[in-house]
Amino acid sequence: MIVDIVAAMPRGRLITIEGLDGAGKTTQAAGLVRELESRGVAVRLLREPGGVEVSERIRSLVVDPALSVAPRAEALLYAAARAQLVEEEVLPLLSGGTWVVLDRFVDSSLAYQGGGRGLGVEAVRAVNEFATGGLAPDRTVLLRVGPATGRVRQAGRGEVPDRLEREDEAFFGAIERAYDAIAAAQPERVRVVDADRPPAEVLAGVIAAVEDLVP
């Protein structure tokens, strides 16, 4: 009887926000959470890499500009952080009916390590399939912004660039192309929003991109 009740419980939705550094992911993810809460949706906002203690410790490694991290090691570290977050937070929340909005998920690794680092999207996808147990977002919002605009926005934050943010234009160009390829291949899951517009207009686009999922 308990098994039947659990099986009948509504599963939460997994919404992921993706894009280049400087696209406004953190701002838009927070805005989307506020909108969902205003509609009575139980929702949690989490970030990657991070969200739980093990993953936060891994985050400190992968963003540290003082460290030299090999591309394969980088991909595996991100996957490990993701595996812990999924196991410890994401799956229990979804199973309990809570929505999860994730600031980055698997597509980030496909774009950054698969595309930017040149490891190959399919190789990185296989690692992350194992890390997440095959968990896939119900909807991914790709905030599309050019690398140059992203750079300007990063500089405007007044923060010291992390290890990846210090990479060159070729790196970010490869990431942009990888993201575009992912969006073109999976249009039902990935919705592209022009992030070059003012934040309020971008948020309206983000909300529209998930509107069909909201009860």
Poorly predicted regions: 1-9
Shape: globular
In spatial order, strands of the major sheet run: 2-3-1-4-5
Question: Structurally, how many domains make up the residues?
Answer: 1
Largest sheet: 5 strands, parallel
What fold name goes in the CATH topology slot?
Rossmann fold
**How much strand content do the residues show?**
5-15%
Mean pLDDT: 91
What is the CATH architecture descriptor? Answer: 3-Layer(aba) Sandwich
Helicity range: 40-55%
Radius of gyration: 17 Å
CATH superfamily: P-loop containing nucleotide triphosphate hydrolases
Order of helices and strands: HEHEHHEHHEHHEH
CATH class: Alpha Beta
Give the class from helix and strand content and strand pairing. alpha/beta
End-to-end C-alpha gap:
27 Å
Describe the 3D structure.
The protein is an alpha/beta fold. The chain has one domain: Rossmann fold (3-Layer(aba) Sandwich), CATH 3.40.50. 55% of the residues lie in helices and 13% in strands. The chain contains nine helices and five strands; from the N terminus they run H-E-H-E-H-H-E-H-H-E-H-H-E-H. Strands 2-3-1-4-5 form a five-stranded parallel β-sheet, with helices on both faces. The N terminus is likely disordered.
